[in-house]
Design brief:
1 helix, signal
C-alpha cells in the first residue's frame, strides 16, 4: 500500500509539472476582445478565443516552449512560437492588413 501511494504521488506530481497556466490576450484594432487565463498541458492545444473567422489557441510543447496558433477558417493557419521562462517573457502573434490589426499574446501566469 505504501508503494502504491508513493507511485501515485510521483505520477501525479509529474503530470502537474507538465501543466502550465498562461495569461493570454486577443486584441483587434486596439480593442481587447479576450483577456483570459488558460491552463495548458504538454502536447495539447488550449483555446484562447475566437474572433470572426479566426480561432486562436496556444500549445504547450514542454520545456517552456509554447506556440500560438491562429486558424482562419477556409484560408490558413499561422503560428508564433517562443520560450516562456519568466513572467516578463511573452509569445506574440500579429496580423496587420488593410482590414485588420490583430494580436494574440501569452505570458506565464506566475
Amino acid at each position: 500500500m505504501k508503494h502504491l501511494l508513493l507511485s501515485l504521488t510521483v505520477l501525479l506530481s509529474g503530470a502537474a509539472a507538465q501543466a502550465q497556466d498562461l495569461f493570454c490576450k486577443l486584441t483587434v484594432n486596439s480593442e481587447v476582445m479576450v483577456d483570459t487565463k488558460v491552463s495548458t498541458v504538454v502536447g495539447k492545444n488550449a483555446a484562447i478565443g475566437t474572433y470572426d473567422n479566426y480561432q486562436i489557441s496556444v500549445r504547450n510543447q514542454g520545456a517552456g516552449k509554447f506556440y500560438i496558433e491562429v486558424y482562419e477558417t477556409n484560408v490558413s493557419r499561422s503560428y508564433a512560437d517562443g520560450v516562456l521562462r519568466t513572467e516578463e517573457d511573452e509569445t506574440k502573434w500579429t496580423l496587420w492588413s488593410r482590414e485588420i490589426l490583430m494580436e494574440a499574446s501569452c505570458r506565464l501566469a506566475i
